[in-house]
């Protein structure tokens, strides 16, 4: 699962840019300035003066990594361009002749880049990640209760699944199996359509969060999205279970 496992980027502890010693602390620790030339680098990935790759400030989240505000509506095409550009700049080929420290930094940054891109490009993963950042939801916090409006269909689906398993166990005839499979495929389709509906509900909440003018409104939007996300993940699990069952044998 590529969900928001990490709420903040794990701090990479690169070895010292220069040898251990006193010079290290005064240079590297001064926030916002380049470890190599001392110019103001302001959490940029590369120093604007000497172009050396820069370490990640420890509190960088995925939004900040891409220089974005913590907002849900985002331009994924622009994000994609940024992703490819950075991937290319951080490519190991560009660091063949660089110091060990720079190689380490570029590798660590590439890893974060990939995680950040995978998380932010997908609206569901983006919301899950945001809820983690905002402390509204933790991993594994998902309620696995059937949403009331789906109870009937879930019940029916479980029956089909049970029947299919029974038929399999007793070596049911091919025609019966075929029919059960067909019914399950239809049920899966129904839930896939529902999942799209739930996703639309989720994205419809984005403006409420992005435009929240106070903490109360912000919190309310987050809680609402958390609830929608529970439903989404419930339906997603159903679809997965059916797919697993159908894929068997
Ligand atoms: Zn520099």
Count of discrete alpha- or pi-helical segments spanning 4 or more residues = 9
The fraction of residues in strands falls at under 5%
Coarse structural class: mainly alpha
Fraction of residues in helix: 55-70%
CATH class of the largest domain: Mainly Alpha
Enumerate the distinct ligands.
zinc ion
User: CATH-wise, what's the superfamily of the largest domain?
Assistant: DnaJ domain
Distance between the termini: 24 Å
The average pLDDT is 86
Overall tally of domains:
2
What fold name stands as the CATH topology of the largest domain?
A: Helix Hairpins
Taken from the alpha-carbon principal axes, the silhouette is: elongated
Secondary structure: number of strands:
0
- The CATH architecture name of the largest domain reads Orthogonal Bundle
* Rg computed from alpha carbons, rounded to a whole number of angstroms: 24 Å
- What are the secondary-structure elements, in order, as H or E? HHHHHHHHH
Biggest beta sheet attributes: none
Uncertain ranges: 1-8, 11-29
SSE inventory with pairings:
Elements: H1 22-28, H2 62-65, H3 76-89, H4 100-121, H5 123-133, H6 151-169, H7 174-204, H8 206-210, H9 215-247
This protein binds zinc ion (ZN).
How does this structure look, described?
The chain has helices at residues 22-28, 62-65, 76-89, 100-121, 123-133, 151-169, 174-204, 206-210, 215-247. It has 249 residues and is mainly alpha-helical. It has 2 domains: 22-133, Orthogonal Bundle (Helix Hairpins); 148-247. α4 (100-121) packs across α5 and α7 runs antiparallel to α9. Residues 1-8 and 11-29 have low confidence and may be disordered. The structure holds zinc ion. The site of zinc ion has 8 residues, from loops.
